[in-house]
Structure formats: structure tokens, C-alpha cells
Amino acid sequence: MPRGVPNKRYTPEFKKMVIETMLEENLSYCETARRFEVSCDTRIKSWERIYLTEGPEGLAVERRGRGNKSGSRQLPKEVEEDLLAEVQRLRAENAYLKNLQALVLERERRQRRNHW
Fold first, then answer.
1. Confidence (pLDDT) at 114
2. Contact 38, 18 (CB under 8 A)
3. Can you tell me the distance from the alpha carbon of 11 to that of 59, in angstroms, rounded to the nearest whole number?
């Protein structure tokens, strides 16, 4: 495809008409693509797969791009609050243990100095 030419977008109604015509008239993917001036037959294949698995409504779903996985899984408010509280508790515990370790090391150093 030449540069500067955007990808052609097809309406859900057009996709539905193409697939239903193909199924009714027993057309091949190539014949269907030629007849409806769709750029490639693999697009027709994917439309047919969606039509057969999800129904005509599935053709209206925007599927381009990587998708938004992080936004699709929203945690319930109380679970999110519990997780934040646990993170704060673990951070405090970690800081306490670091301070304790520093104190123990300092005590050991003093004992070594006093021993000599």
C-alpha cells in the first residue's frame, strides 16, 4: 500500500452483508473479495471467523492495535485498598528490618574493636 494512504475501514453492516452473501451464494474468499472490492481474501476469512463465532455483533468490535489489558481488569475498591495497605505494611517491615540489621552490624563492629 502506498505511503500516506490510510487503511480502508469497513462498516459492520458492510462486513455482515459481505459474509452473508458469501455464505448464501457459496462464493470463495477470492471471489468475494473481488466482487466487493475488498483488498485481500484473508480479511474476508477473518470476518467469517468472527461472524461464525461471535455473530453479526462481533463484526462491530474494533480489533486493531494491541488492546488495553491493564484497563480491562479493574479491581474492586476494597481489594485495591487491602493491597495498598499490605504494601505499606511490607514497606514498613522492610525498613524496620534494614534498621535492625544496621544496628546488629554496628554492635558487632564495636565488639570487635573492644576485643582487640
1. 82
2. yes
3. 9
